[in-house]
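[job 4471] stage=fold_predict status=RUNNING
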Amino acid sequence: MEENKEQVEQTYNEQSKKKKKGLLIVIIVILVLCACLGGFLIGKVVYDKKEDKKNNNLNQEDKEEKEKQEKQEIVEEQEDPNAPVEEVRTEDANRIMNQFEKIRISDESLFKKDNFEISEISTKEMLHTAFEQLSFNTCYGSVHDEFIVTINGINEKINKYVKKSITIDQIKEAKGFVGQYSYEVIDNNKIEVSGCYEDNYNNKYTRTTIEKAEKKGNYVYIYQKIAFLRPNDTAELGKQEYHYYKNYNDKNKPTEIVYGGFDMNSVQDPKWNLYNTYKYTFKLIDGTYYFQSLELVK
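[job 4471] inference complete, writing structure tokens
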């Protein structure tokens, strides 16, 4: 009996030792895992801090570089006060103005206020500028152009006259018509266009004459008299009446009343001393004078 009791106690003690040993192993494993996890977390925190510091340094460098470039651009944009003023020949001034007239900016945009900056040009006006370079048929005929153009193709045509680009999203927002063109975005890169070229668009309701043109550094300033022309539809039959206005916003007080045929190009010139002078500013960029601004002088 005593012998059996001793065997039971011995078996119990051995089992207890095994359990304690197993529990100790489990505890050690847990401690090792905790140590590894803690080391990983500490390492990650240190790494993240280093990366944040590195990114902050890069961002600061990018910011400083951007500010440096912006300052350089501002310096380049500024006119050299010591540059001599040179007279521009009339034929050269006319050539520059002819290029400006390829930009389809409406009279409403240009003259409603006393000044206009090229940065104010609308998406539709830029689209109109591009479409007219892609057209072959004028609006006097019965055949209209239909073509598909990519966004890069549009911006290439815009940049010929305006140093500014547009996106597909802007075109989607400006849906509808521009001038004599309708258009529709057909995917994220292409636009389908239908319409015709409107000849003599910019000079249709204005008469102009250049007073003088000057060059200073990379800038050319062209001073031009402008008279605003509107047909009077109430004139008697067979005698077309036209009204010249000194200011674009004038509606009821014509500066002059003249007569002509039904073709507006046949209307006689105004008396220029009665009208205002506008100053056009152009900047030489990559060998071409790009329109920058327009302002009323007097």
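[job 4471] summary: Residues 68-76 have pLDDT under 50 and may be disordered.
[job 4471] exit 0
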